[in-house]
């Protein structure tokens, strides 16, 4: 059964930025969009295991810092090669200034 977990405060992420979030034995990336929406995806690029929170975030895409592949962080869709496998995405919401993510147990 999935549960909602506090990942960070909204102010911990720059607008059009990302933050790493580790929970259990998994790592995730939390994104803040230009209009202050929040999104959560798996943290590692599907091409090579590089953390996407270290990548360039512009508009609604994150660019992998290793080979410049890109993903739409709203859906996890791979948008530019070399990655051709989508990221898994997870529900995220704001609650009293905190970023909450719904993760599997």
From TrEMBL:
Domain spans labelled Rieske: 5-101
Q: What SUPFAM superfamilies does the database record attribute to this sequence? A: ISP domain
Q: Which InterPro entries match?
A: MocE_2FeS, Rieske_2Fe-2S, Rieske_2Fe-2S_sf
Is the keyword Iron-sulfur in the record?
yes
Q: Which UniProt keywords apply?
A: 2Fe-2S, Iron, Iron-sulfur, Metal-binding
Please indicate which superkingdom the organism of origin belongs to. Bacteria
Its name, as the record gives it, is: MocE family 2Fe-2S type ferredoxin
Task: Please name the source species.
Answer: Mesorhizobium huakuii
- Organism placement in taxonomy: Bacteria, Pseudomonadati, Pseudomonadota, Alphaproteobacteria, Hyphomicrobiales
């Amino acid at each position: 059964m999935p549960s909602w977990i506090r990942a960070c405060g909204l102010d911990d992420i720059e607008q059009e930025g990302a933050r790493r979030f580790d929970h259990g034995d998994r790592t995730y990336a939390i994104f803040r969009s230009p209009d202050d929406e929040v999104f959560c995806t798996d943290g590692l690029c599907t091409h090579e295991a590089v953390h996407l929170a270290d990548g360039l975030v512009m508009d609604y895409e994150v660019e992998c810092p290793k080979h410049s592949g890109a993903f739409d962080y709203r859906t996890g869709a791979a948008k530019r090669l070399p990655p051709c496998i989508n990221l898994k995405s997870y529900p995220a919401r704001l609650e009293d200034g905190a970023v909450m993510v719904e993760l599997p147990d």
